[in-house]
Amino acid sequence: MSQQTPPGSPEPHTSFLQLWREKNDQLVRQAKVIQDTHLSLRRQQLAQDTLEGFKKLLWGLQGLPAAVPVLPVELTVICNFIILRVSLAQGFTDDLVQDIQRSLKRVLETQEHLESRLEQSLRELWDSVLHASALLPDLLPALHLLAGLQAALWLRTDQLGDLAVLLQTLNGSQGRTSEDLLLLLKAWKPPVEKSDAALTLQNAQSLRAILLTAFAYQQGLQELITGSLPRALGNLQEAASGLCTRPVLVQVYTALGTCLRKMGNPQRALLYLIEALKIGTDCSLPLLEASRLYRQLGDTSAELESLELLVQALSATHSSKSPQLLIEVELLLPQSDQASPLHCGTPSQAKHLLASRCLQIKREEDAAEHYLDLLALLLDASEPRFSLLPCPPGPSMPELFLEAAAALIQASRAQDALTVCEELLSRTSSLLPKMSQLQESARKGSKELPYCPLWVSATHLLQGQAWVHLKSPKEAVSEFSWCLELLFRATPKDKEQGSSCEQGCSSDVTLQQLRVAALISRGLVWVASDHDTKALKDFLLSVQVCPGNRNASYYLLQTLRKLDRRDDAIALWQSLEAQAELPQEEAIRSLPLYLETYLSWIHPADCETFLEEFRTSLQEPHDG
């Protein structure tokens, strides 16, 4: 159904063609004026009016039979319409595929010998149109622009195979695979538009540069995640030299810093992070990476300062700049997920990172204050509540309370720790079996108590330790005993509900270590109260619960010696000596932070001195 021109007749639609071109150019100029408008509501309305203008113009053009002289203007109008629509929506919509497909079919309709190919797939349509364009050289600039939009859509939807074939056809090359996509993009040379051609919002050369930058950045990030660091470095450097907006350049520089840190080049990494901070947009990403870098370098002060600045940066209100009425690199990038090295998280997650690092490095007062601030932030109505279900990459809400309680105990604020524990139990009381139900089941000697998460037992454990600090042994023993009652009736799950330990610890390991901690803690209270026989039972049970636990064995050995049970003590000492020659498992490092912290409290400081003294005493004569 091609539109033919009789010999000697004027070119069809000559006057209309000029009008259509002028209308397109007017809308393009209007859009560029709108770009400089600062009032966002007014700007949005004007942009929508311009989009509607392109839409009406397109309807008028596509309502006529397809004609070769008109096609360059028609394709330019559809390209401008798509560019403006994508930029206003800040994303690619599904119906854009139909718009592109309709335009390609209009080209084929002008070629009688190709009309049979109208039912082809989109990829096949592109192949037919681009091969036919050799007969229609005036169409090439507009076709390459439309191809650039198709490439952007396929890159955004991860259809890299189709994109590679399209680029091969555009380049007139065959035999390259999608693995050479970066080379294919570099080889693509869109033809320059004629000076009298209809105006475009964005030309094909600009789209090519954006595609090249976006793909290099995506590839670099993916290789950074998979550990292909040299390849990641090359692609990220390619992206950095490309057509980046300021926010994207911050991301690229931060990714380069991450890559170089992992490659063992911290000084070069730091230079990129400094450059990212100088750009002056959102500083969250480079600050987070800087904290990791300083941690790797062992510069604790700089690490904590970076985290404090990160909390401030994430909490600050950033004025959102109106996007350009163009397709930019951001629109082609996938949303950052939690697995990405550039995932920054929320203010509360940054605050937790700061608080937990202070707890780990024994900054007691700072840790306590940061945890209290964090709890206040999370319990405020403006911050989304944490679920009791696992919520990686951070801990669940109950674990946050437990970490806060541990931080307060470590800062000698035991009464505040008790308050935090009570608050946790009161806030979750509706989710737990009633205390009377638990006590009744225990009284009847039920084999298994109603299901109760491990963090409930851990809460009682921390309450017991708080009472120890307050020099209230009776209350401490009561809490430790109730903790043990729950723990010895608990059934471990493959993944404890309400726990999402960052290191992926299993609940059976946590359960075992909680039992050991509670038994040792109660045993130490008995020792301090001169109830050595009761202490002996707890220490003996702790060794049985976790054979090979050196803390439990040490306290048992100390008590056996104190009770003058020499033969048992010697047998246990020999066992300890044999264990010392074996490689030690790093089980503690896979535990939740609150439990790691707790276990550090009950680790005997004078263990090696005592064992050396015991070894010496064995060489002395003993009256039998």
Write a structural description.
- This protein has 624 residues and is mainly alpha-helical.
- Helix content is 65%, strand content 0%.
- It is built from 28 helices and no strands.
- The chain has helices spanning 14-34, 40-62, 71-89, 96-109, 122-132, 140-156, 160-171, 181-187, 204-226, 229-240, 246-262, 266-278, 284-297, 300-315, 329-332, 347-360, 364-379, 397-410, 414-427, 435-443, 454-469, 473-487, 507-528, 532-545, 550-562, 566-580, 593-601, 607-619.
- Helix 1 (14-34) packs parallel to helix 3, helix 21 packs parallel to helix 23 (507-528) and helix 24 (532-545) packs antiparallel against helix 25.
- Mean pLDDT is 84; it is low at 1-10, 383-392 and 494-505.
List keywords for this structure.
624 residues
Can you lay out the helices and strands and say which pair or pack?
Elements: H1 14-34, H2 40-62, H3 71-89, H4 96-109, H5 122-132, H6 140-156, H7 160-171, H8 181-187, H9 204-226, H10 229-240, H11 246-262, H12 266-278, H13 284-297, H14 300-315, H15 329-332, H16 347-360, H17 364-379, H18 397-410, H19 414-427, H20 435-443, H21 454-469, H22 473-487, H23 507-528, H24 532-545, H25 550-562, H26 566-580, H27 593-601, H28 607-619
